[in-house]
Amino acid sequence: MLVALITGLATGALYAAAALTYNVMFSTSKVLSVTTGHISMLGGIFGAWFISTLGWPIPIALLGSMVVGAAFGFLTDLIAIRRVLARSDEHLWLLSTLALATMVQQATGLWWGTEPKPFPRLIPQDFSAGLADQKYWLPIAIAILLAVALELFYRRTLYGKLFVAMSEDAFAARARGIPTGRIRAMSYVIAGAMGGLAGFAAGQLTFAYFALGLTLTLNGFIALAVGGLGSNVGALVGGAALGILSAVATYFVGGEYQQTISVGLLMIVLLLRPAGLFGSQTVRPV
Amino acid sequence: MKLPNRTFALFIVTAALATLPWWAGDLYKLHLAALICAYWVLIGGLNLVVGYSGQLSIGHVGLLAIGAYCFAILAGTHDVHPAFAIAASGALCALCGLLLGLPSLRLPGFYFAMATLAFALIVTEITLAQGNLTGGGVGLSVPGFPPPFDTPRGSYWLILTLAALVTWLSWNVARHTWGRALVAVRDSAVTAQAVGVPVFRAKLTVFVFSGFTAGVAGALFAVLQSYITPDTFVFDLGLFFFVCIIIGGRGHILGPAVGTIVLTALPEMVAPLAKLGNFFYGLLLLAVVLLVPEGIGRVFELLLQRLRPRRESHVVKPDLDRLAKAIEHGRSAR
Question: Which of A236, B53, B113, B188 sits a CA distance of 20 to 30 A from A12?
């Protein structure tokens, strides 16, 4: 039972990190990018490649993973967001990010192989550590670290305040002289670095697996929608709730219905509180 | 002027498709054609949801899987007559479409897409979990059609007839009040509601219809595959249906049809593309979204307009004779 709880919490922390990544991109562009999970997937796979194949030292590999994630975030903005947001059609960004995500997943599958490959140990530790194993607490620590860092960034720095201003009203921010395009690109780079870090930290839990992206996109979104869109606390709570619920359900019912249960949680929360637990109520257009 | 041309073209296409078994060459191409028609049965219905009412469903492969398994279980395990089994698959999937649509169609765009994605994953999970019903990971073998349709030609004609029927149905929906209402919902739900379109009911109705066609398509697809496992219905297939419609152009019927034919046939004809698989679809989708968001159909429209400039002139010329006649008529009447 305790194992189930800890596993759930660790998986939930990864979902929470994905939800935080969604949040950063959403704040400046109002886009929920399908590529969110794929950033973390790339972080995990490139981390494993840097360490195992290229033999880089771990801190350099960590930096490398974050750079790969940031580069992918920048590419997402450049290819799939910038041109599409200029048009007025509402859901084109969904199509363009979906297309980009599909391409990245398939390309990674062709290059890396479709089998999950093991992720190397990051910190010297015996495999008999059990529940204190690093594969459980690394993702949890990273998710909390990311949430705290984001809050500090939003409250204490000028750029963070620009993000908040853009998420309130992008047109007003532009009228006040904020270079909205550059800030948006920057938010995608930051989100990419965050996703790469999360994928790297959770690598031992998920393995370096090319199909992780889509699962993470979906579950991160569920965590986000349960917690409330735009709220970082909500992302943490939603991720933890989702992870623990599906782990406990797996413990009692068996692993076959994991997806069904997590979607059930989403549906219940959306029916009771459409804005999520910590989200703000949106104004209807009429 | 325009109508006879269109009827003529329709006649040519119908004749070409009906006689396909004689000029297709080998059996594999015939099988491919039948597969395209089976896909089209689903895509024709899905087109009303994605192309007309603008609900981006990427998980219709879940409904396809339910239809296929329903057919395989009824016709294979329980020896129900295949015609009845096809109808039952359609009905079951319509019901599933209703159950899926009731909560999820209320959600905004991205939420809805994610709900359908989750639905596809759930269906895969359940087919794996309910091993004694669906055969689990091992899969089920599917019986063929009864005698008049048991040859490759016969099954091709049966599937072609059903595809034509779906095309006709969806065309009828699209060109009348319903289709206009759906386009209005796609372009602006608020405006549509303001002019009296029952937004949710319109969306739900076409979604249930697309569920029905997906069920029928699932049964046909299962027969063509002759053996189904959960791996047959990967999420990528759902993405493929979706991409066919977006590339063909939203709000058309011909565009998605051409998209289905090209996207199914192209990887089979050009071997390197088959290896790239999804990468190719993703690239195509990205190119279409960035360059021509209205779809490839729009490119042809623009080309046609350029090739055939409009005949009628917009210069206003006074028709003095008619004016004089009208004035005289008015005078004599007074």
Answer: B113
Whole-angstrom distance, CA of residue B97 vs CA of residue B212: 8
Q: Is the minimum CB–CB distance between B290 and chain A shorter than 8 Å?
A: yes
Interface-testing mutation among B61, B121, B197, B289, with chain A (most A C-beta atoms within 10 A): B289
pLDDT 10s digits, B208-256: 999 999 999 999 999 998 889 888 888 888 888 888 888 888 888 888 8
Which residues in chain A touch residue B111, judged by CB atoms under 8 angstroms apart? 225, 270
- Separation CA B334–CA B332 (nearest Å): 5
Q: Residue A26 in contact with residue A214, Cβ under 8 Å?
A: no
Alpha-carbon span A127 to A118, nearest angstrom: 14
- Among candidates A260, A271, A286 on the partner chain, residue whose Cβ is nearest the Cβ of B122: A260
pTM for the model stands at: 0.85
What would the pLDDT profile of B164-175 be if each residue is shown by its tens digit?
Answer: 999 999 989 888
Residue B168: inside a domain, yes or no? yes
Which residues of chain B does A79 touch, with a Cβ-Cβ cutoff of 8 Å?
286, 290
Q: Which CATH number fits domain A2-115+133-272: 1.10.3470, 1.10.10, 3.30.1050, 1.10.760?
A: 1.10.3470
Query: What pLDDT, on the 0 to 100 scale, is given for residue B1?
Result: 41
- Chain A CB contacts of B279 under 8 Å are 102-103, 106-107, 110
Tokens of A134: 């690093």
**Identity (one letter) of the amino acid at A64?**
G
Do the Cβ atoms of A38 and A106 come closer than 8 Å?
no
